[in-house]
Target: ABC transporter domain-containing protein
Amino acid sequence: MATRLNAPHALRAPTVPPTVQVRGLRRAFGDTVVLDDLDLDVAPGELVALLGRSGSGKSTLLRLLAGLDAPDAGTAEVDGVTSVAFQEPRLLPWRRVAQNVALGLRTGSRRERDERARQLLGEVGLTEKADVWPVTLSGGQAQRASLARALVSEPGLLLLDEPFSALDALTRIEMHDLLLRVWARHRASVLLVTHDVDEALLLADRVIVLDQGRVAHSLRLDLPRPRALHDPRLVAHRATLLDQLGVRPSSATLTSTAQEAIS
Ligand SMILES: Nc1ncnc2c1ncn2[C@@H]1O[C@H](COP(=O)(O)OP(=O)(O)OP(=O)(O)O)[C@@H](O)[C@H]1O
Model:
């Protein structure tokens, strides 16, 4: 039977301060205002998907939260350790897989770090690959290793920038399942940037649509996991999100249930 994964934050008191608190955030590059007076909270243990058209500022927001860039105005406060994983796994080719994962750790002896790295590789199903070179991994395996490296430091916040978009459809389904399992286990807050509306619907507690540097729409999904895309509630939410993104799908691209939900 499939495991039911529910949001860990649902168990916590509502008074717990947010893991991410963004207020009045502004970032411009020359005349291009990318983020404009943006406000955003992510609760402890919440999995938030960030959708938006290309160029809407998703990666810029992630970079600011990761401390890789500085805002022009406003604040982006993050409580606890932050880890980032990108679309491309960014493993160092001259280090073996376990050594790459251990790079996510700053404390402990070499042996302790190696043990912890192998433990995480076990969690993501890569025990057998600990001592190989990254170049020998498949795309999905490399992304698993990247996830292990992001998790090894037990971050309070995991920032994922389109981590599955380069993977084939079947591997992506496996990675969704893996992400939900490690998220439930580690209880980190997750901010997942994605172009894929269905990915957001399957995974997130909340979906945020970014448009012209602001939150254009925020959709809470109080639905148990695993979720099925043909669930009428998700079909209806899908239509809302596509509408918010300014996508007007032709009838050929919609399932019959989706058409029913929209009509
Ligand atoms: N360092 C930079 N210098 C100049 N312009 C930048 C810089 N970084 C981002 N931009 C611009 O900011 C805008 C938003 O970029 P960003 O990468 O945040 O968008 P995005 O929503 O992540 O896009 P995509 O979905 O295509 O990845 C774009 O117009 C981009 O050209």
User: Anything to note?
Assistant: The beta strands are 20-29, 32-42, 47-52, 73-78, 82-85, 157-161, 189-193, 206-211, 214-220.
